[in-house]
Automatic annotation (TrEMBL):
PANTHER family: 17-BETA-HYDROXYSTEROID DEHYDROGENASE 14-RELATED, SHORT-CHAIN DEHYDROGENASE/REDUCTASE. PROSITE patterns: ADH_SHORT. It comes from Novosphingobium kunmingense. The keyword Transmembrane does not apply. GO terms for molecular function: oxidoreductase activity. This is NAD(P)-dependent dehydrogenase (Short-subunit alcohol dehydrogenase family). InterPro entries: NAD(P)-bd_dom_sf, Sc_DH/Rdtase_CS, SDR_fam. Keywords: Oxidoreductase.
Amino acid sequence: MKIDNSIAAVVTGGASGLGRASAEALAAAGARVAIFDVNEAGGEEVAKAIGGIFCKVDITSEDSVVAGFEKARAAHGQERILVHCAVVTGGGKTVSFDKETGRYKRNPTEMIARSAEGIFTASYRIASHGAVGMANSEPLNDDGERGCIVFTSSAASQDGQIGQVAYGGGKGAVNSMVLPMARDLMDVGIRVNAILPGIFATPPMLGVKDKAPAIFEGLEASVPFPKRLGNPPEFGSLVLELARNGYFNGQCLRLDGAIRMPPK
């Protein structure tokens, strides 16, 4: 897909971190970008900086998502690139020791359900609304391409650590959705891929650097090469390639400096 100012894009979670890097990369390439996020201040700031539009969207709400797409399309037209970075999740070990009672307790099922809704279900919600809009639009090129969808999964989907049952399981479900969705959408010319980032220098991780520098240094040292956390623009660069390269389809790509973390 050729990216220029005729192309509209939607990026969820675009107010910060990997979503912001994706929005900035797409805007720099010429796309008109709409940012979906619950963070109004951050989203408005990024949208202003890149010449885009901010839509306050809760990815766990069907009505909120529908309203976000309506606002984005009214401003920019039908999006042809959809990058889904937003996530709602929880954590905790399957069972953990409770010092107050002296017994082990289980992580509530509700925590898993919250992550399933905020990761897998939300991913389908965002992607399917984007896909139906793309499918009802004219092809962009001789291949018949109408658009592309990029999910943000995680290295934790294949390399989950202690306490990541909810998160790793949810992201694993996203991986499993990529190929069947790509096949579902092949007749309407929509490609579907996922990026599995490792440890990136996003705001939460930079918070670890400030509060626990020794832990942060250990995380950097755990990456084979380069021995550092990923920079968000490196994620944005891969988003651009997945959008531009029309032969990328049905893929789950790790972007992690070759990290394979043992349980800790």
